[in-house]
Amino acid sequence: MATAAPPTLTAETTPLSRHLFTRIRLATPSDIPHIHKLIHQMAVYERLTHLFSATESSLSATLFSPTVQPFHSFTILLLEASPTPFPFSTVDSNPFFKPITKLVNLSLPFEDPERDTFKSMDDVTVTGFVLFFPNYSTFLGKPGFYVENLYVRECYRRMGFGKMLLCAVAKEAVKMKYGRVDWVVLDWNVNALRFYEGMGGETVEEYKFFRMTGKALEACGNTH
């Protein structure tokens, strides 16, 4: 039985001549090189390159498991942009996630200096991603999602793409009847704080974020 292609977005009726076709889709193992580059860019932006040790091999070995369904473990949604409508492809028939498409009108000229570096197919460029996984709230008695990373490349910021990615996670949480979505923001990142507050995110002042890693993790893990 043939699968009908979804309606194609067009720019013929838009008032602005500058536009981008955008798509949020599930990442696949073939996207690992782009994901690795995005994570490195994020580490540079957050001044945390001293903590960056991920490799394409380590990401490939840990992020994608053929035995685990998306949204029930580590999940990555990629945001792509194109000057032309996206062609119908296998991602459109993915049983776990239907790609979210949106036509974005731009009021100013736009140029992506890294278009070739982040090219995923003809005229399609990877612009950002969100990585998240399930957690659990004993107070709510419900699962939720924890957003580990949400990143949009610099030249694509202030276009609403961060909102699109976060809303995609929230949409899945609502669909799965989860109770909340959590994330952490660096305290110096004023732009991110304002963005998340504008999205309805609440700062939980009563809690401090703790982490155990490296030698401390090994020492605790080897305690008998």
From TrEMBL:
Pfam family, one: Acetyltransf_1
Domain N-acetyltransferase stretches: 76-223
Domain of life: Eukaryota
Keyword entries, A-Z: Acyltransferase, Transferase
One GO MF term attached to the UniProt entry: N-acetyltransferase activity
This protein's name: N-acetyltransferase domain-containing protein
Organism of this sequence: Phaseolus vulgaris (Kidney bean)
